[in-house]
Amino acid sequence: MLALLxxxxxxLHGMALQGLQVTWPTTDAAMRAWQVQLPARASSLPMxxxxxxxxxxxxxKGRSTPSLQAAQPAAPSDMAASTSSLTADPPASKEAAIPxxxxxxxxxxxxxxxxAPVAAEATPPAAPPSPSTPSPPPSPAAVxxxxxxxxxxxxxxxxFVGESKGIRYSADGDMVxxxxxxxxxxxxxxxxxxxxxxSQSSSGHLNELGLQPERFGDKFKQxxxxxxxxxxxxxxxxxxxxxxxxxDGAQDRLSLFVQLASLMQGNPDMRQLGQQIQLQVVxxxxxxVWAFAVAKQETLALPIGxxxxxxVSRLPLQQYDQTxxxxxxxxxxxxxxxxxIAQSNGDVLEQFLRKVETP
Length: 359
Known about the structure:
16% of the residues are buried. Helix 2 packs parallel to helix 4 (76-87). Strand 14 (335-342) and strand 15 (348-357) form a beta hairpin. This protein has a 15-stranded mixed β-sheet with strand order 8-7-6-5-4-3-2-1-15-14-13-12-11-10-9, with helices on one face. The protein is built from seven helices and 15 strands. It has a domain at 154-357: outer membrane lipoprotein receptor (LolB), chain A (Clam). The protein starts with a helix and ends with a strand. It is of the alpha+beta class.
């Protein structure tokens, strides 16, 4: 009997050390269910969080080693009760070791996705105001056709006074104007006893646009010239200067005086103070746009006598433009009776009408 008890104690002790993994020495069905259910239930518990790892380890150690008293044989009714209590949920005191917040399983998240954020409804932009139909630009005031009344053929004799590099000098000269109503010739010459003579010439035809120069020559010891090639729309130069575009109404530096006289005589509105005139002016080497303005009425004391005149001045468009003032005489078909030309370097040349002769 003592030997049987000693063997039973040794068997129970070995089972406790092996974590109840051996078969209970009985064939009772309830006892076998209890032997299998205990380790399966322990493995189904969720893993504890790191914050409660030490406390949970001690609790699981206490559950994994049953007391020797629990291993005592029991009656069948008592064994059934033990089996039911083991298969039921563990007590609340044991659940305290499980963390309160358990991550949501991935399957649940997929099965019940969080509602998609609702985008704020964009307010549709306000429709741009429909552009109002632009009103047609006002029609420009009709410009009356210009009338050109060129003066009669004549020879104007002038006294010239000049200053060059601080040295004053005087000279004499004349301007001869001839035309037959269709063609014209214009020539001016300035003569100095020591410096010699310089002459300019202009020739061309006359039409409803006034003077239409065809050639302009400038001679001092040798001549250089500009050619108005109207069929090509250019003005060419003999002095190795590139050709330039020819504008309508272009004049040379000599025909300019007669063109302004013809314009003033034929159009009274052009004589109003402040009236401006713009046209292309061609020299023997270049072509540029000049602008003139009607300045004022003056009475001049000239070698030919006292004459009322209309002063017209060139408006400088660039810093070093020469200035030109001319006084146009109504008594002489608005031909210039005084002219003053000033260069940017200080040189000045003036001419005063002394007499008018038949050419």
